[in-house]
Design a protein that fits this description.
The chain is mostly beta strands and about 290 residues long. It has a domain of about 200 residues. Helix content is about 10%, strand content about 25%. Strands 2, 5, 6, 7, 8, 11, 12 and 13 form an 8-stranded antiparallel sheet that branches. Strands 1-3-4-10-9 form a 5-stranded antiparallel sheet, with no helix packed on it.
Length: about 290
Amino acid sequence: MKSTNKILTIVVFGLCLVASACNFQSPTPPPVLPVTSVPTDEPTIPPVTEVAVVDESTATPTEIQHVARPDDPVYIVTQLVHDCDVGERYVPGEPVRIPEVCDLWEIDFVERPTNSSYDVYYPYLDIQEAQFGATIDWIFARIEPYQVAIPAEDENVFYAFELDLDFDALSDILISVEDLQLGDVFWTVDGLRAWRIQDGEVSLFFDQGAASDPDLIWARRTPDGVVEFGFKPSALEGDLTFAWWAWAYQGDLEASQLIPLDTFADTFFAIDNTCAFGFNGDASSLPNFCR
């Protein structure tokens, strides 16, 4: 029986070889069968789609999202400084009279809320007082001008604070708001910029919310015309010991113009600032200290 099976196997194998030899020159393609599913462990590659090219010059910029605004300001009674009062002496139609002790350019103490001819008085540049305060999360600063007024449309008006972190009479931080409107009674970042000054180099680190923290610094105007700033301690990189003084200025502001004034010609007008005061520190060694 085993011999018979062996003979049949050999015959079948031989027939297969013959069939293969006959079909070698013109092989018949295998039938194409429909495939319903193919199991695989490889990730599925999505089809290639055409990507539209966006012209960045016309693209709409991403809107800055804010999540934190200052609380109601808290001010410290002992952080209040008064400035020279030109408005009380001003008589319309007469030259603006400025006491000599209030305008000491050589020590960065300036009182010029007027034009260069002393015949136009700018009450919105005449600082009456300035003050600092703080809560756990925010530092506050305020500037009260003699009178609230709307400047000419072609003029820019700035209110600013200089912060001296190492008490060397040179600015390390400048925070400024430009053209704050009378109706800006809610905290805003519009027109708000801040610079750091190190080794004579001025670098902008906050530009109307454009910063690593868009909620870092805010400004507003109270209904009675006081300009207020609110900023996080991180704006000062955690340094809460500094000297400060306030500015009001009309024109085109370059941050370097205020660092310090005596490096520039004594020709600036439409400008006013306060004397310097210390926050958590003694600023009595500064030439423009409030004595």
